[in-house]
Every structure is written in structure tokens, then in C-alpha cells.
């Protein structure tokens, strides 16, 4: 029984060590995932706004092609600091998003600028932080 407990403890420690080492990698490098030397822009309708940590996402249906785009945004906390909440963007909102395309997959980008023409709402990345733009400054 003692040998079984020792093996079980060793297995548990290995799992914790491996889990602890890989956890920081879950937050990827924006520069590694997206090509900032290229720009992409898409005009479409929001299907879903996921205001999650560490980065919110917009699922956007391209108005021209009908294809779905996944738009990753800046840090959630930084959006909260400028007043953006889970209710700021809603399904059905028509927006234009510009940013850096993904290095790995089509129809995915890191959104650096967003404009909602219906009310002039917008934000853009300035340096490494978002700021409100348009009529809502």
C-alpha cells in the first residue's frame, strides 16, 4: 500500500508541475499570433460579443461575403477602464473593424480599431491601450 501511495503522490506532483509550467503559455503573444505588418478590415454584423478575460472576442458576419470572422480585442480590464462593458456591443450591431490578420487562420484578426456608424461609437488602440474615439471621446 505504501508503494501505491508513493506512486500516486509522484503522479499528482508531476501533473501539478506540468500544469503549472504550461499555464502561463495559455496567454499567447499577440505579436506571435497576429501579423502587425499587414492590415485587414471587415465590415459586418456582430453575431456575438464575448466579454471574457483576458481578451474579449467579437464573432462578426462579413457583410460582403457572409463569412464569419473571429476578432480578438485588447485586454478586458483595459476596456473596463474606459467604460466598455459586456453590454456595449450587441448582436445585430453593424461595425467596421480594422486590425492585424492572424498568422495561422483566415478570418481571424486582432482588432485595433472599431467603429459603429449608427451612433458614432468607436475605439482604437493607442500604443498598447485602447481609447474611445469618434463621438464618444
Can you walk through the features of this model?
With 137 residues, the protein is α+β, with helices and mostly antiparallel strands. The chain has one domain (30-134): Beta Barrel (OB fold (Dihydrolipoamide Acetyltransferase, E2P)), CATH 2.40.50. It is built from 3 helices and 7 strands. It has helices at 2-22, 30-33, 76-81; strands spanning 40-50, 57-62, 68-72, 94-101, 108-116, 121-126, 129-134. A 5-stranded mixed beta barrel has the order 1-2-3-5-4. Strand 2 (57-62) and strand 3 form a beta hairpin. The longest helix has 21 residues, at 2-22. The chain starts with a helix and ends with a strand.
How many structural domains can be distinguished in the coordinates? 1
Could you estimate the helical fraction of the residues in percent? 10-25%
Q: What oligomerization state is this entry in?
A: single chain
Strand order of the largest sheet: 1-2-3-5-4
Shape: globular
SSE run: HHEEEHEEEE
CATH class: Mainly Beta
Largest beta-sheet details:
5 strands, mixed, barrel
Instruction: Give the name of the CATH superfamily.
Output: Nucleic acid-binding proteins
Q: Round the mean pLDDT to the nearest integer and report it.
A: 85
Total strands: 7
Termini separation comes to 68 Å
Strand percentage lies at 35-45%
